[in-house]
Amino acid sequence: MENVDKNYEANPHLKQITLKYVAGQVLASSVSNMLGLIIGYPLDTVKVRMQMSSESSVGTIGMLRGMIKLEGPFSLFKGMSSPLAGAIPYSIIIFTTNEVIKRKLGYLSMQEHNLSLYTGAFSGFIGNFFYVPVEVLKSRAQAQKGGKYTYREQLPLLLKSEGPRGLFKGFWATFWRDVPGWAVYFYAYEGLKVASTRFLSQDKARQYDFMIRLMCGGVAGQLSWIVSFPFDVVKTQMMCDMSHKPRTMRETFAQIYRQNGVRYFARGLTPTLLRAFPTNGVTLAVFDLMSERLE
C-alpha cells in the first residue's frame, strides 16, 4: 500500500479511485441527469412525434401546438416514467464510467479533453446495453397518440408478441448514435472549457464559472446531436416498428431515403437542438460542480 501511495504522489496526473470518489460520481450523475431529463423531456416528445409523422410540412411549433390542443399539455410528458426511472442507472453507467476511466488512465498524461474522446466512446458503448430497452418503451409511449400508456401493461405484451429481442430493437442504430455522440459530448465540453479560459482572466473565469459551464455544456450537447442525429431518426423508426419481421438498420435507412429523401434524416433536429442546450448545460454544469464538492 505504501508503494501504491508513493506512485500516486510521484505522478500528479494519477489520482486514486476511492469508494468516496465513486459514490460522489454516482450521486452527481444521478441528480444532474434527472434535472436535465425533466427540463428537456417535452421537446424530446415533439422530436419523436416529428420523426414518426408522415406529414413533412409539420414543424416544431405546429407539432407542439397540435399535441397540446388535441391531447392536452400532459401529452408532452408521455412515457417519462421509464426514462426517469432509467436515468439514474444509465447516467451512473455513462458519467461514472467516463470519470473513473479518465482517472485510471491519468498516467497517459493526455489533455483531459483528448482523453474524454476515448473514454466517452467507451462509456457510450457500455451504457447501450441498459439504455436500449428503456428507450424502446419510451419511444413507443411518445409515438402513441391518445390513450394511456402504462409500462406494466405494455411490457408483457411486447415480450409476448416480439420476445426479449423486441426490447433491443434498434440496438445497432443506437450504438452508432451513442458511441460517437458521447465521444463528441465529453470531448467538446472539456475542450470548450479550456478554450474559454484563453479569453478570460482568472478573476473573470472564477466569477462566471457556473455560466461558463452552462454554455460549454449546452454547446457540447448540440454538437453531439448534430454528429449522431441521422442514426437517431433510424433508431426511432426501428424501435417503434411492431411488426413480427422488423427491418434491419440498412433496410430502415434505405426505406427512409426512398420514401422521404435525405432531408428526412434531419427530421426533428430543431426541437432536439432547442432541448439540447438547456438540458445538457444544466446536466454538465451541475455534475461538474457536485463532483468537485463531493470529492
TrEMBL record:
Solcar repeats lie at residues 20-104, 111-195, 208-293. It holds the Pfam family Mito_carr. The chain crosses the membrane at residues 22-43, 75-95, 115-134. It is found in: Mitochondrion membrane. GO terms for molecular function: transmembrane transporter activity. Keywords: Membrane, Mitochondrion, Repeat, Transmembrane, Transmembrane helix, Transport. PROSITE patterns: SOLCAR (PS50920). One of its GO terms (cellular component) is mitochondrial membrane. The keyword Transmembrane helix applies. It is a multi-pass membrane protein. The keyword Cell inner membrane does not apply. SUPFAM superfamilies: Mitochondrial carrier. Its main location: mitochondrion. It comes from the Eukaryota. InterPro entries: MCP, MCP_dom_sf, MCP_transmembrane, Mitochondrial_Carrier. Belongs to the mitochondrial carrier (TC 2.A.29) family. This is Mitochondrial carrier protein. It comes from Halteria grandinella.
